[in-house]
């Protein structure tokens, strides 16, 4: 046997060149061939992304020079395709029928090579006589960091290879390696959808290397695929050289490898898909893997040709019917066509006369245009002569206009000078007015000085009277008031000092009283705490709170949590913010019977015990939101309390029931469920059942009261992914059904450690004595302190009486001081008023002399009067200059008026000339317009005539040329117009024929001719297709019947050997070759008929048995060099599995069989084997031993056989 070993801990070695594995030796021991492969781990690959590619989602089709991989292989063979594939869309022409260029005929193929090959038997494999391998079979497989393997390398045998190993060791990984390594799509495996999923977890890259047997006499083909998990890509090496996926696919296609075919490659995850194959799909897959190599091509040709023939028949029938209908319709329109021809003759006559009328009208218009042009030139000459006579008058008028402009300039200059002089006159008037006002102001100031002098005398008299009055009042004050107030102020200050000293003594007594009261309050608190401590010594909840706060107790050190207690106390202090508060299970839950406390503690974790439970969702959300703000003021945010809330159970979300009833578990030896042994508030009970499933965990505290095997069967879950727990003694059992593969039951156990958290502790006598001593000491302190406090209160009352006496004396002194201060204030006010009046009197007596001011004002008045006289003289001179300018203005205005009158007379003469010019110009314009209109009409008529001639039929054009040549340029236009009118009248009397009818008639006639040609072409194509289908079918059906008969013979014989019945047959359909199919009929019981194999009718084991027997029936007929089935024997009963194994050994070990891989996790004992069987056992695990040579060098890592020999040698030495 060859051991497939994987080594997860092997260290990398320097990179070496990839070399083929040496051929394994053979041994005749026990009639079995024993092969030994290498398991030395190579270095990590250096992935080259130059040939990277994405994993396709469908079967690969490598291309080379525009051909598929299969076509590249058969380049030197003659092409046997009798039909080209036709798209159904391209078979449709413009009218829904196939066009001749879009339907290809099936040609008869009389190729001697195909006929000879069709007569020969199916393909016979030719083995290499040196090693017995078939070309294209797998010679070696090597993987690194691929799924379950760190590294593995082995060489399978040339025939049957049985790959054995427990579940999870990597059997199916070998199937994945073959598919991925040869470049087939990932979805062929029915597993992962991404390429990077095949790299072992924890590694960035890996590779798969497949060595295929080459053609006889040629080297093997080595394909290596490097996979990168980072970017989900891969690169390729072909025979050690960088390559690409297309080249690899071409190399694989040349070897006829069909990994994507379920008939030759059936991985574990697609076993059920084979039975679900439709009969039509089974026929296609069977043709690909066995029989004549062109069976599938012939079948595809027939499918396409039958579809084309169906379309052509439908098209031909439709065209024949359509052609007949169109001919009948045109027969009804022939009378309308004759009437149309008569009307057409009249229309030609009308067109001729219309052209002639326009043609001769053009000739007449040209003559009229020449005469009108001569008249227009004569009128223009007369207009020019009149304009020359008008020129002298215009020149004289221009001279008068210049004289008028000169006179206007003189008038304007005189106006400007007058305006300037007038402005000067106004300025002189304003200057005189200002001087007059200034003289008046000076006179007013002189009068004001007289009034001020009288007022000053009155003010001096009033101030002297006030001074005498103030002096008399000051003399009336007796003594000095400030000196009288001095002793009273000193007495007030002395009283204040006495009061301050008394206050200090009083405050010291008050502080002593406060200290005594604080001592009494502290002693009372100490006494109360001591009494509470005595009470808590026997309360379980208080004991747990004490343990949780104190982490010095080694027994509860892993449970104690000061941060949790801070959060617990915070919640108690802020309970008013929440609707309801529920204490955590560590405080609120009690174990009813202490014997079960260890079991309860074993199924609830410390974190779950300290979870804050809420009955309302808004309380739960508020609690989490508050603690997001760190209300405890922690320096680090690493700790936060755990909170829980779940709504009550509903019909949509019910509470899962227990696996067994109370009666069933007690009958099995259990004491009950965990929820039966605890007591807690309803909210905590809901937490224990909903979150921890206390109502589903059975408990038995007696180790031997329950049979573990019976308990395992009783609590085995029916739903995959569900875990059920129960306790027996001090062991916690957990049972789970795997959601993967066969969904087997998995069992795990763990020991329960006892912590005694929920056990009540005995009362501590030492702490009791300490609390009693604290109470006695506090009572003595309260008694002595009360006595001292009474003495201090007496002293405090004495201080208060003395303070009141001092306060009364201080108020009397303050009253006397107030009276004296009022006198001082009055005296100071009189002295201030006296000083102010004396200062005002001195200022008034020292004012300047009024006579000097009067003299200065009179001098200024004389100066202003003289200036006014000078301004009056200047005014007289300015008036004289203004009169001179007015005289100049009058003369210039007269000259301007005379010139204006002359211009008016000249304008009358000029207007008369202009009127004559207008008449002449109007005549010229009228003739010009008439000439332009005639020219436009002539142009339009000429254009119309050209258009009529151009649009006329050839017959009309010929008749028009004949008429004009006969009559020349002279013709009777009125006669032609009369003939045109007569033609119109006859045309109107002729019945109107719808041109659309004639158009329909002509189009339909064209369509009839086209349909007749198309029918002839379709009949030819139909005949060619029918002949081609018959030719291809004559080659395909015999080969297919031969293949199915051989498969049926082998299949029926195999079923007979297991005492069942089976049949394989062809279901034909002459109209649609795509519906031809292979039907598998089976019978497993004697009392039932043969039934068609489906994915629902038979059981899983029956489907597996049928699948393997069908695949074995194809083995001797297969075209593929190797085949693989993965765990096909799972689900079979022992009888069928043994019979299938023996049949499989017989078929796959025959000389004409190819390489075969059977992957299975187990085999029955005493099975039949053959020397051509190669058994590969997977030895995969976390540790594999090493083999060292005499020098201690590792030379064969993980070689199990070599290590067993070394182990035996070591045993012999010991």
Automatic annotation (TrEMBL):
Annotated RecF/RecN/SMC N-terminal domain residues: 138-1160
Record carries keyword Coiled coil: yes
Q: Which UniProt keywords apply?
A: Coiled coil
Q: Which spans does this entry mark as compositional bias, Basic residues?
A: 30-39
Where in the sequence does UniProt note compositional bias of the Acidic residues kind? 46-56, 73-83
Which superkingdom is the protein from?
Answer: Eukaryota
Family membership, please give it: Belongs to the SMC family. SMC5 subfamily.
Return the InterPro entries for the record: P-loop_NTPase, RecF/RecN/SMC_N
Protein name (Swiss-Prot/TrEMBL): Structural maintenance of chromosomes protein 5
Instruction: Give the residues annotated as coiled coil.
Output: 302-336, 775-802, 827-892, 1001-1028
